[in-house]
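Re: [ENG-882] Designed sequences occasionally contain unexpected residues at chain ends

Forwarding the minimal case from QA. C-alpha cells:
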C-alpha cells in the first residue's frame, strides 16, 4: 500500500490539486502531517474537482507517526554529492521499479513531500530510507508540489501496468529492516572506528543502502546472520 504524504502543507490550493493527482493514478492513501492549510477552504475544494472524496478522507497525523511505515521515501529537488549520503537520490522511474512489485504491495510505503516554501529538513530526510528527485532543467529544477506528486505517481502507475512474476517472494518488513540495521550498527561499534564521525558515516551509508535495496526476507536474514558473525 502506497501513501502520498504531505509534510506541513501550506496552501489549500495544493491540497486540492494533490488530491486530484492521487485520484488520477489510483493511489490508496493521502496523508497530511501537521497541515497548515485548511482542506475545507473553498480553494482546496475547487482545485480538487472530482477528487473531493480523496481530500475529505485525507488522514491527518503527527510527524512521530511516520515511524509506522515499512519504507519511507523522501523527495527533494536539492540533490547532494556522493559524499552527502542521505541526499543521494533515485529518479522516479528507478523508484517505480523498486516499489511497484507484487511482493511490495503487502508493505506500508509512504512517499513524503516537503513544504512548499522550504521542502524537507535534513533531519526529516534522514528519517527516510532513501531520497527521490525529479530531474529538471538546471536553470529552474524545482517543481510545484502538485506537479511533483503527479510526475512520481505517473511513473508508479506506468510501472504497475507491467506484469510481475514474483508475487510469491516475501519482502523484508519495516520491523525486520530495523533489526538488520541494529545488527549493522552493532558490528560498526565493534570495529571501533576512529574518529567517531567515521562510524556515524558508516551507519548512514548502510541505512540508505539497505533502504534502497528493498531486500527480500531471505536476503535480509542472510545479512543478519553475516553481521552477527563478524561482531
Amino acid at each position: 500500500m502506497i501513501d502520498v504524504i504531505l509534510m506541513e502543507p501550506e496552501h489549500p490550493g495544493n491540497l486540492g490539486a494533490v488530491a486530484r493527482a492521487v485520484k488520477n493514478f489510483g493511489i490508496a492513501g493521502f496523508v497530511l502531517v501537521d497541515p497548515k492549510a485548511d482542506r475545507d477552504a473553498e480553494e482546496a475544494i475547487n482545485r480538487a474537482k472530482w477528487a473531493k472524496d480523496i481530500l475529505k478522507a485525507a488522514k491527518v497525523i503527527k510527524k512521530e507517526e511516520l515511524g509506522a511505515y515499512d519504507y519511507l521515501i523522501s523527495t527533494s529537488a536539492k540533490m547532494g554529492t556522493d559524499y552527502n549520503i542521505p541526499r543521494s537520490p533515485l529518479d522516479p522511474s528507478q523508484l517505480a521499479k523498486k516499489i511497484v512489485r507484487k511482493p511490495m504491495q503487502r508493505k506500508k510505503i509512504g512517499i513524503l513531500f516537503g513544504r512548499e516554501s522550504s521542502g524537507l529538513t535534513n533531519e526529516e530526510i534522514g528519517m527516510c530510507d532513501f531520497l527521490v528527485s525529479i530531474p529538471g532543467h538546471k536553470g529552474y529544477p524545482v517543481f510545484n508540489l502538485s506537479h511533483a506528486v503527479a510526475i512520481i505517481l505517473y511513473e508508479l502507475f506506468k510501472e504497475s501496468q507491467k506484469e510481475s512474476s514474483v508475487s510469491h517472494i516475501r519482502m523484508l518488513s519495516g520491523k525486520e529492516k530495523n533489526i538488520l540495521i541494529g545488527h549493522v550498527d552493532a558490528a560498526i561499534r565493534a570495529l571501533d572506528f576512529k574518529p567517531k564521525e567515521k562510524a556515524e558515516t558508516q551507519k548512514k551509508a548502510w541505512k540508505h543502502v539497505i533502504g534502497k535495496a528493498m531486500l527480500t526476507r531471505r536476503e535480509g536474514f542472510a545479512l543478519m546472520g553475516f553481521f552477527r558473525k563478524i561482531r
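QA comment: On inspection the terminal residues look reasonable. Residues 9 and 115 are 5 Å apart (CA to CA). Proposing we downgrade this to a documentation issue.
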